Amino acid sequence: MPLYECNEYQFVENIRRLLESHEKFLVNRKIVLHDDAKYGPATIPEQEFERYSTLCMRKSVNSTVYAKVPFVDTFHSNRMYNENENLHAASALLFPRMSIPYYKVEYSVNVWGGTYFFSFDALFNPTIAIEKRTSKRFGGQGVLVHVLRYGPPEERVIKLNLPKEIMIFDVKHMVRVIDHSSNF
Amino acid sequence: MMEKKGIHKLKSISVLVPLERVQVSLSKIEFLLEDTVTIVADGKFWIKMLYVRGDETISISEEIGDAYPKDPIITICGSKTTISRIIEGVSE
Fold first, then answer.
1. Structural domains of chain B, count
2. A134 near B CB under 8 A
3. CATH number at residue B60
């Protein structure tokens, strides 16, 4: 079964053509949370990095990122970062110490034995606050510390808005079957 | 001819016009920005914006950074009239 990758424009236009042809089809959607250190603060563009600028500093894209202030990352089991700690090294861009979680979103449609898909990653939104925290690390006393939280993007903004008559099935996993029958 | 209420059409266009012009065109027909998200597709970072008017939705995806030329992708799920007004608005 051939797999064809589309961008958003191509995928939506293909769906529109199918709708206009009155062909019956089903759209599958897979939304899965990933936290595999694929995205870190060194590699994100400046516009996205600004959202972390209270906590981190860097010279430019792909430069080493350091912590400006001590902070707690609640998403990763309240992991504590110290001031000037290396969060994402320019020499190890594939292995950020501070990682940004994301949803992997995949839309696919099967027609005439082929699968047409469109996929993208939607980054979680950071929110930064100053909170009073008590722990052994702070000598058992309550201290004010920066806290980083990641919130998932709203479903309404990550989903493709398709007309109501299109049936969308949510799936967990797509098993790609290799069809050898055409070889004989 | 009257359009059937609630029957939506689908259209996606990729236009070589600045985002600001697209946004002006949307605000003229009273679409409001509801939410944004940063996405990564085709190895590039994009800002995806969701505009809503009633039950009609429009999403605009534009590449982040210094990419040139900028060609935002506009995906419309709305009435025929909305689709034509947007196409006219961005091609004026």
1. 1
2. no
3. 3.30.160
Domain ranges, residue A10: 3-179
Within a domain: residue B19? yes
B40 → closest Cβ in A8, A121, A156? A121
Collect all residues of chain B within an 8 Å Cβ-Cβ radius of residue A48: 38, 45, 64
- Residue B54 placed within a domain: yes
Q: Which residues of A131-161 are buried (b: 16+ CB within 10 A; e: fewer)?
A: eebeeeeeeeeeeebbbbebebbeeebbbbb
pLDDT tens per residue, range A45-54: 999 999 999 9
With respect to residue A147, please indicate whether it lies within any of the assigned structural domains. yes
A161 occurs within a structural domain: yes
**Could you tell me the residue range of the domain that residue B50 belongs to?**
9-91
Q: pLDDT per residue over B22-42, tens digit each?
A: 999 899 999 999 999 999 998
* CA–CA separation, A123 and A144 (whole Å): 28
Instruction: Tell me whether residue A184 is in a domain.
Output: no
Amino acid letter at A1?
M
Edge-to-edge, what's the strand order for the sheet holding A79-81?
Answer: A79-81, A71-73, A142-151, A125-134
pLDDT (average), residues A35-62: 96
Q: With CB atoms and an 8 Å threshold, state whether A123 touches B40.
A: yes
pTM: 0.89
